[in-house]
Amino acid sequence: MPFFSIRQRPQAYDAPDTAGPDEAMPHYATADELRARDLQFVRRIHHMRMLGAALCALPIASVLDERGAGWPAYALLLANAVVWPQIANLACRRSRDPVTAQFRCLVLDSAAAGAWIAAMAVSAAPTALFVTMATADKIAAGGWLLLRRSTVALVLAFLAVWSLSGFPWQPETSHRTLLLCGPFLFVYSVALSLVTNRLGNRIRVQNRELERRSRTDPTMQVPNRPHFEAVATLELSRFQRSGRPASLMLIDVDNFKAINDRYGHGMGDVVLKRIAALLCASVRDVDLPARYGGDEFGLLLVDTDLPRALVVAERIRREAEREVFEAEPGLTCTLSIGVAAATAGDGTLEAWVRSADAALYRAKAAGRNRVAAA
Question: Taking the complete model, does pTM exceed 0.70, yes or no?
Fold first, then answer.
């Protein structure tokens, strides 16, 4: 029986998960995850197979009745429409490779379609319907390779049954049979649309998550350096075109190595996460905090000149100084911050970053826990 299926075959690994500022590591799926996804594919096809087989049985039964077929033909039709989908589903679910097993069942579906075309004496409307759907569903499920295999199966099964039946040829389609093709065309098309829409929504959600991961530091849950630099480059270009101000900060956690050595790397991560959260809470939605690398953060302030940026930087410095870490009451955290407003001399992002970095160096050289301007 022909039916249509939408396939989302799991690959060797999932979408990339950002591992740090400069690289992305793939999340490799476990064997259990891969099998679960294979079974999702099997389950989706099973539902469509049951629907398609039941609806296709209507025009076949009509033609068989018109040709005066005996009860064995109806028994085979009932088995194909009701029993076969359950057998195929059980075999696929028990297989070590459910998707490959399902592909074999898809080939058998095409063979069944070819056999019923011959049994109907090539009745025009059902034949056109079955061949079209047997072609479309194989392309959707497994591409051209599966289509070639299934087409060969359909043709061979058709020729075998057609020759055994004495090459019957009655292409005329009665009004009743034509009407009974309608439920398949309508109901199946609606079901297919629902499946396609659901999968499309799932893909859109996955794409948004992929996009978020590609620009986010997974540990700090703030944008990573590549995304920060891309946005900062656009902001610098906007300044060069329109003169609208923008400021950039580089923020360094003072004596972070000493914090790690004394309190452990776990506590060091807590400190960095606390600073990341502080940056997010201290700026507007249009601004962009990011992890720039190691214990260093970046902050892009949109439509902000140097005096206003210095006010923001000083507020962040004071808030960090007041942070309390309940697990380590003796731990204090201070920041050195370098601030640079975009200027006409900043022809590239690298030049703008160098200005902020030079200001950060001066803040550290002056004793840390302070703000310095370029």
Answer: no
